[in-house]
């Protein structure tokens, strides 16, 4: 790896063929290898019991036929012993099947547990631009539906495949001991089965992939419709939303029935082939018995063997359909696992440890695509200084704070914290230094106490309560029936927007970061709540280097420095009064808000 090249850990080429995908999936079963070996041993034992029983039943038929033909009577003692052994073999086969299914359930669940853990770790390592391009619904479908499909089909298909292979080998061996001619007739099913599989497989595989992809899109549409149902109703968008649902639903229906049809059609074709071969075996076998070439009991056993031989062949279509389903889901999982991760640099970038600035943007270049948004951005922020960032929509305000947190990687220049290039920190080290309070409050379903403690999992109760008091959360929480143990529902709408924002501020207090980012933190609340939030934020800003992104200029009058951004660069900087006197972009924004407020 060349110097300065980012390390993409764990990235492998996406498998383009069925065998490659299956091979990669099997690699996740290594930790269950001893269980798979045990399953194979049990499968061999169970198959031996299955294939030997027809031969014993054939000998029982021969014993009865010989006794009647010789008019010496039937040896019921010997017959009972044979039937008793066969019964015991059937019981043994049933126990083997049960244990085999149980062990394969453990194997399949262990495999998908490993896959889920790796997928979760991978998602945490993906860069922000990945989530800009992929819907949450599709990712949820991969993490839940595809994983469940792999677990279910892996258990069923792998067990059937393993048993079928061993059964076919054992049956062929015993059929050859009876008649090689009849064995050749029975073997006609093999090339014909291969031809049927070859005809149906491509269409089935193609539609399985399409079905799973559309399923992800449908999940995304449903999630958006549920989350935005108020907006949908407000703008009379119900009909359009239903049309979108119908489109995805129709595509899913088309791909679904085609995948099931082409995958399932192999089974009746195999059954027809099996019946035709069975008729031929009966005809040839009857001639052989009449000629005295084989015993009637052996013919009976052979007919049972031919059924056992054709059964896994006819079931192969079902097994193959399950394997195609596994591959389709596995490929979707591997596509996520093969995505490029956040950059982890091997080289050490130049530091400037004698720098007096807490944060320094030094000739930074950045663009979301090929075109640069920031072409030569520089900014020095002193320790404990509050920087307000102002500008029209699209000026680069939020981009600036995202670059500081390395949600996106810069194209040129450097960003230094305490004189150390931010790329020399791990993402974990960097984010420990930076706290953030967003416009869109993010709280999870759980207690208010747990949501505050999210800022510092190691905090004591006293520290959590102190943070809550500092953020003015304690006052309204104490009035709730359950207090800090109040459980926020999935939408967190059992408390007000302002209260949610105060909880996020308390969380930031508890995290106690060196650098604080406030991104439009008061834009979604009423004036009275805004005043309370501003009061909490002023306490939060004390002693910290802060970046405040705001549309409401009234919230940043007291900032140490206000920078005005336009098209990714700083066009003005100074305090509130200086910028007003300059009569530039800031003055225009201020006057437009002032006139709007007066109106």
From TrEMBL:
Q: Which GO terms describe its cellular component?
A: plasma membrane
| One example GO MF annotation | ATP binding
Q: Which PROSITE patterns match?
A: ABC_TM1F (PS50929), ABC_TRANSPORTER_1 (PS00211), ABC_TRANSPORTER_2 (PS50893)
**Membrane topology of this protein:** Multi-pass membrane protein
Top-rank taxon of the source lineage equals Bacteria
Q: Which residues form the ABC transmembrane type-1 domain?
A: 37-325
Keywords tagged on the record: ATP-binding, Cell membrane, Membrane, Nucleotide-binding, Transmembrane, Transmembrane helix, Transport
Q: Where in the cell is it found?
A: Cell membrane
List residues traversing the bilayer.
Answer: 33-53, 73-92, 157-176, 182-201, 276-303
Pfam families noted in UniProt: ABC_membrane, ABC_tran
Q: What is its main location?
A: membrane
Query: Which residue ranges does the record assign to the ABC transporter domain?
Result: 359-592
Keyword Manganese attached: no
This chain belongs to which protein, by name?
ATP-binding cassette, subfamily B, bacterial
Q: Which organism is it from?
A: Candidatus Enterococcus dunnyi
């Amino acid at each position: 790896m060349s110097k300065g090249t980012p390390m993409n850990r764990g990235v492998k080429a996406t498998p383009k063929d069925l065998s490659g995908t299956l091979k990669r999936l099997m690699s996740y079963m290594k930790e269950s290898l001893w269980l798979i070996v045990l399953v194979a041993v049990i499968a061999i034992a169970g198959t031996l019991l299955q294939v030997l029983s027809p031969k014993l039943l054939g000998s029982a038929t021969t014993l009865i036929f010989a006794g009647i033909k010789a008019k010496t009577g039937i040896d019921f003692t010997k017959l009972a012993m044979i039937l008793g052994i066969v019964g015991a073999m059937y019981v043994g086969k049933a126990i083997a099947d049960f244990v085999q299914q149980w062990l394969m359930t453990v194997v399949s669940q262990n495999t998908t547990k490993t896959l889920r853990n790796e997928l979760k770790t991978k998602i945490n390592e993906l860069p922000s631009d990945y989530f800009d391009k992929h819907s949450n619904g599709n990712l949820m479908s991969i993490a839940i539906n595809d994983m469940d499909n792999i677990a279910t089909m892996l258990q069923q298909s792998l067990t059937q495949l393993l048993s079928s292979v061993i059964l076919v080998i054992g049956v062929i061996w015993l059929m050859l001991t009876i008649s090689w001619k009849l064995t050749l007739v029975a073997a006609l099913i093999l090339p014909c089965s291969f031809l049927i599989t070859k005809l149906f497989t491509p269409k089935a595989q193609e539609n399985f992939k399409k079905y799973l992809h559309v399923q992800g899109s449908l999940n995304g549409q449903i999630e958006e419709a549920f989350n935005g149902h108020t907006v949908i109703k407000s703008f009379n968008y119900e009909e359009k939303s239903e049309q979108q649902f119908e489109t995805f639903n129709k595509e899913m229906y088309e791909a679904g029935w085609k995948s099931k049809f082409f995958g399932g059609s192999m089974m009746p074709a195999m059954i027809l082939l099996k019946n035709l071969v069975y008729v031929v075996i009966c005809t040839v076998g009857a001639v052989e018995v009449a000629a005295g070439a084989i015993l009637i009991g052996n013919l009976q056993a052979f007919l049972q063997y031919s059924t056992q031989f054709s059964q896994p062949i006819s079931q192969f279509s079902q097994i193959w359909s399950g394997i195609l389903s596994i591959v389709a889901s596995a490929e979707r999982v591997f596509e996520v696992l093969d995505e490029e991760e956040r950059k982890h640099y091997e080289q050490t970038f130049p530091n400037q440890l004698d720098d007096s600035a807490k944060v320094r943007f030094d000739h930074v270049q950045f663009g979301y695509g090929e075109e640069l948004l920031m072409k030569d951005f520089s900014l020095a922020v002193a320790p404990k200084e509050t920087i307000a960032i102002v500008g029209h929509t699209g000026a680069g305000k939020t981009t600036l704070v995202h670059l500081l947190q390395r949600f996106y990687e810069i194209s040129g220049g450097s960003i230094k914290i305490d004189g150390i290039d931010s790329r020399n920190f791990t993402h974990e080290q960097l984010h420990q230094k930076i706290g953030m309070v967003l416009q869109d409050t993010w709280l999870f379903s759980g207690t208010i106490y747990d949501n505050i403690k999210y800022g510092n999992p190691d905090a004591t109760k006293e520290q959590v309560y102190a943070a809550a008091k500092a953020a003015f959360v304690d006052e309204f929480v104490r009035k709730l029936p359950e207090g800090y143990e109040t459980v926020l529902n999935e939408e967190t709408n059992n408390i007000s927007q302002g209260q949610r924002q105060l909880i996020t501020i308390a969380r930031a207090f508890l995290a106690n970061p060196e650098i604080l980012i406030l991104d439009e933190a008061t834009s979604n609340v009423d004036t009275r709540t805004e005043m309370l939030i501003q009061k909490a934020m002023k306490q939060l800003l004390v002693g910290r280097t802060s970046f405040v992104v705001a549309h409401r200029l009234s919230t940043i009058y007291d900032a140490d420095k206000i920078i005005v951004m336009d098209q990714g660069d700083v066009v003005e900087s100074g305090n509130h009064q200086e910028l007003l006197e300059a009569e530039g972009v800031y003055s225009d924004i201020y006057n437009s808000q002032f006139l709007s407020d007066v109106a």
